[in-house]
Each structure stands twice: as C-alpha cells, then as structure tokens.
Design brief:
Blueprint lengths: L1 H27 L2 E8 L6 H20 L7 E8 L4 H13 L5 E3 L4 H14 L3 E3 L9 E2 L2 E2 L3 E3 L4 H15 L4 E7 L3 H16 L3 E8 L7 H8 L5 E3 L4 H13 L6 E3 L6 H7 L7 E5 L8 H14 L5 H19 L5 H9 L4 E3 L2 E5 L5 E2 L2 E7 L2 E8 L4
Parallel strand pairs: 1-2, 1-3, 3-4, 4-7, 8-9, 8-10, 10-11, 11-12
Antiparallel strand pairs: 5-6, 12-16, 13-14, 14-15, 16-17
C-alpha cells in the first residue's frame, strides 16, 4: 500500500512538472493567453456560466479561422464562486502567474469592481460583458484606466425605457414601483423619472418594496386609485413576476415596463402567462432581431449547445470578439497597447449592437426593448442612445 501511495505521489509530481513546462512553453510561443474570471458556482453562477459559453463559442470560431496574429487563443478559466475576494485573488493569479494579456469577467458589477485595482497594479486590461452599475469604470476619482465594459449602464436602461414610454407608447402619467433594497433599482428609477419628466411626463406616484416581499396588494390598491397610464418596475423577476400577477388580478391593465432584471423564464412562472401581456422590458439582445449578425450567432450557438442563447451568452460572445479585435489592432502584445486599442474601439458590429467605447470606457450602443404577450416574446425594437 505504501509503495502504491509513493508511486502515486511521484506520478502526480511528474504530471505537475509536465503541466508547468507545458504552460511555460505555451506562454512563450504559439498561443495568446486570455483569462476568464467568472461566477461558475454560487449565487450568480447562471450569469457566469452563460457568459463563458458565449466566450468559448467565439474563441472556438477565432481559432478555427486561423487564430489571432497567427497564434491560437488559449483561455485560462477559473471559478470565482460568486465571491468578490475570490475574484480579486484569481485576477492576481491570471495576471502574475498565468501571464494573460487580458482578463474577461467577472459578470457581476461588485466582483468586477473588486478586480480593477489588480488590473491597475499590473497594467493588464479587465473587461466585463455585463457589469451594469454606473460607477464600474469611472467614479469621483476619474476613469479606471484598465477597466472596460461592453454592456449599457443601468441609468441608460432607465432613460431608454422612459423614452420608449413617451415616444413609442405615447404615455404621460407613470407610476414607479421599485425595490428599495438595491442600487440597481434605485439607479433605474432615478434615470427613468428624470427622463420621463424631461419629456413632459408626470410621475404620479412612487411606491417601494424590499427584496423577498411576496404580497404587493396593499401597494397596488393604493396605486389603482391614481390617474396613470403606465407602470415602471425597476427590479428583478422574483418580485416583478408577483407584482405583475397581482396587478392584473386587481384589474390594472396599463402597460408594465421593466429592465433586464425581467429576463428570466422564472418571470412567466411567477406571473403566469395570462398576466404577461402588454409588458415590455429592456435587454441587451433579442433572438427576434433579424440582423444577420444576430441570426448567424443564433445558428452557431444552437449548433454547439443545442439550446436558445440568452443575453449573457450574447454578451460573452461579443466580449471575446471585441477583445480579439483590440489585441489584433494593438501595436504591441502587452497590456498597455491593448488598453489603448480597446479605448479606440468604434463601429464594432456585435450581436448585442454596434459598439463604440466612450471616454469613460463604457459601450455606446442600442438598447433592445422586448414586448411580451401571453408570456412570450413577440417583438423587439432598438432604442438608439442619446449622444
């Protein structure tokens, strides 16, 4: 038994050494290394897993087409377990030990922000496809030099939905029912109200709930007696599904608007298909879009994964392709040059829209507004950003 254990230990040591040698070789020769730092387990696992699926499809296509600058792209993938401290640790490992040229992820705003100091210290770009909080790439101290994202900001969603309510639906009197327990809902509510009032509309009433609430009948009874023609619910599907169900049960039949927090099959399960009509929400992409880039991605994704892609799949795919473009355009294969190339991105034609990177390293792109009837997506429209 002792001999067996000894032999096993030697074998593991040999495999470790061989693995290290292999990594050293690939770092120096025929591969371009990109790090993936994602929520593959834990509370935000579905976001990370979907993002990585999109990234891996894109990398597979790039390598199949001959690679980048004559080299294959190699991804080094780690699970940050949906923990900010782990995301910071893994970002450090990717930059200092794995020697990647850029790090994609994390998917969530908090975890992504936790990696930015590491990127500044090591001068390696970090990019997120889905960190939507307004203060991700810029704060009171200025632009975070090595941080980029390709999704729109939360405030952009609020503005887009206010414009959609006034310009596309012709509504002028809104009620806002928001989650008071998170910054996501707060930012959306503020930007919606400001834009809606700026367009001549009136916020008739604002009501608030807390994450985890399940009975909204008191709020809706109070709202029902007001004079309004649209409701905006900036929150996540868990509570929004129940609000919509209970609103329709009380006879409130005005259009109900939301943001990308609605984007889950659970919304229909909670609200019921009958209640999910005359409902609109902003998102990053729609499979209903007949744009050739979108349809080509749909076919490729379905062929590889045998399922319909979601918004995080599409954002991950665009993130990898945009990173490839920047590395290809960089003067040198180092973090400083790639950062400069990323900052100069313009007219990138992605699945989630035509992307330009602005001075604060945010993506300037369309917002997609999806309409639901009987619980199904029936149409999508693109809302151009305000320049």
């Amino acid at each position: 038994m002792k001999k067996a254990i000894t032999f096993l230990a030697v074998a593991i040591l040999a495999m470790t050494i061989f693995g290290s040698c292999s990594q050293t070789t690939s770092k120096d020769s025929n591969t371009i290394r990109i790090g993936l730092n994602y929520e593959l387990s834990g509370a935000a696992a579905t976001y990370g897993q979907s993002s990585v699926e999109g990234i891996e499809l894109a990398i597979e296509e790039i390598n199949k087409a001959g690679g980048l600058n004559g080299k294959k792209i190699q991804t080094i993938k780690y699970d940050n377990k949906s923990e900010e401290a782990e995301a910071t640790t893994l970002s450090t490992r990717l930059m200092t030990q794995d020697k990647v040229l850029a790090v994609l992820g994390p998917a969530t705003s908090g975890a992504f922000k936790a990696t930015i100091p590491v990127s500044e210290q090591n001068k390696i770009p970090v990019l997120s496809g889905s960190a939507t909080a307004d203060d991700v790439t810029v704060d009171k101290r200025g632009v975070k030099e090595y941080a980029f994202r390709i999704c729109f900001m939360d405030s952009a969603q609020g503005k887009a939905m206010a414009r959609y309510a006034t310009e596309n639906l012709g509504k002028q009197k809104a009620v806002i029912i928001r989650d008071s327990s998170n910054d996501y809902a707060k930012g959306l509510a503020e930007s919606f109200a400001k834009t809606f009032k700026g367009a001549g509309g009136t916020i008739v009433k604002q009501e608030a709930y807390v994450k985890g609430d399940t009975d909204f009948n008191a709020i809706l009874t109070s709202v029902r007696n007001q004079d309004f023609d649209v409701i905006f619910i900036p929150g996540y599907y868990e509570e929004a599904g129940l609000i919509i169900k209970q609103a329709r049960a009380q006879g409130i039949d005005v259009p109900i608007l939301g943001a990308d927090g609605f984007d889950s099959p659970k919304l229909a399960e909670l609200a019921g298909a009958d209640a999910l009509s005359n409902v609109y929400f902003s998102n990053h992409y729609s499979s209903l879009d007949d744009n050739p880039t979108v349809q080509e991605f749909l076919r490729a994704f379905q062929a590889k994964y045998k399922k319909e892609p979601d918004a995080f799949n599409a954002l991950g795919y665009d993130l990898a392709k945009l990173t490839e473009q920047a590395i290809g355009h960089a003067e040198k294969q180092d973090g400083e040059s790639i950062k400069s190339a990323l900052a100069e991105t313009k007219n990138f034609e992605g699945v989630t829209g035509n992307i330009r990177v602005d001075k604060n390293h945010n993506a300037v792109k369309d917002t997609v507004v999806i309409k639901l009837e009987n619980g199904k997506q029936v149409s999508s429209e693109r809302i151009r950003p305000e320049e």
